Amino acid sequence: MTAARSLWHEGAMTTPHKIVILTGAGISAESGIDTFRDGGGLWEQHRVEDVATPEAFARDPELVQRFYDMRRAAVQTKLPNPAHVALVRLEREWPVRVPGGDVTLVTQNVDDLHERGGSLRVIHMHGEHLSAWCTACDARSRWDGPLIHRPACPACGVPALRPDIVWFGEIPYRMDEIHEALSEADLFVSIGTSGAVYPAAGFVRLARELGLATLELNLERSQGSGWFHETRLGAASEIVPAWVD
Ligand code: BV8
Fold first, then answer.
1. ipTM (interface predicted TM)
2. What global pTM score does this model have?
3. Which Gene Ontology cellular component terms are annotated (predicted)?
4. Which residues does 155 contact at the CB level (< 8 Å), separation at least 6?
5. N or C end of the chain: smaller count of CB under 10 Å?
């Protein structure tokens, strides 16, 4: 774990203890899951931003359910890639190698590839494909099948299940935990995100204000690249293991 151990920060080589990692669609791209904005970010000629909203769900629930049923099924045919696996090594080995060391993994992704790669603690700030949210009783249930046929909620029996996904205009999950992790960390690493969606896109600025070292690992420069101390470009399945190992 050489690369993760040290990073130039304000001219000095430092050894981070607490690391916060943010991942986006780019870490899952090489597992075959489409990103949002590469290739136009379209689905059946709909902009994702136009489908992933409460208004779209109210206007055309079947269209939105079909959109998520298709992606929920597709995700289950994909496999974690070496980038996911490298982060599992970091999560397991960092606390052993560095006294007080800790890794907090925050993802914008709604797939379960981090978990299937072996990550034990994942903060899904935008929700999860494999979870259904009952609008009648507010219960969340693990769900891997379609919702288009309005199945009954496992908790209350009412056919009121929606994708447990944070849509545009909705408040992301576990923001307090994320802010607390950033306030205690000394390194923020962003992997595979365009920096197009807030509040996630603002984490690097918060990290800079808090005095963290900041590193971006991405296929290309992002909207937030100017805020990072260092940006390394390349495919996640190559540059993430190279950084961790
Ligand atoms: C909020 C679930 C308030 C959906 C997602 C008007 C009205 C309402 C809100 C707003 C508004 N204007 C602005 C906003 C805020 C809005 C926002 O930011 N809009 C954008 C479009 C301007 N945000 C919200 O609404 C958020 N909520 O603001 O509530 C609030 C906030 C805090 C506290 C209190 C109140 C909610 C946003 C969540 C939306 N839901 N996902 C779904 O999945 O179906 S967002 C969606 O975009 C995904 O989660 C995705 O992860 C995320 C970000 O995209 P990326 O992951 O970065 O993916 P992208 O395709 O963009 O980029 C891929 C990157 O990977 C690229 O850089 C590429 O180069 C790189 N890459 C590609 N291949 C590889 C690679 N890198 C490495 N290796 C490779 N092989």
1. 0.94
2. 0.94
3. cytoplasm
4. 134, 137, 139, 141
5. C
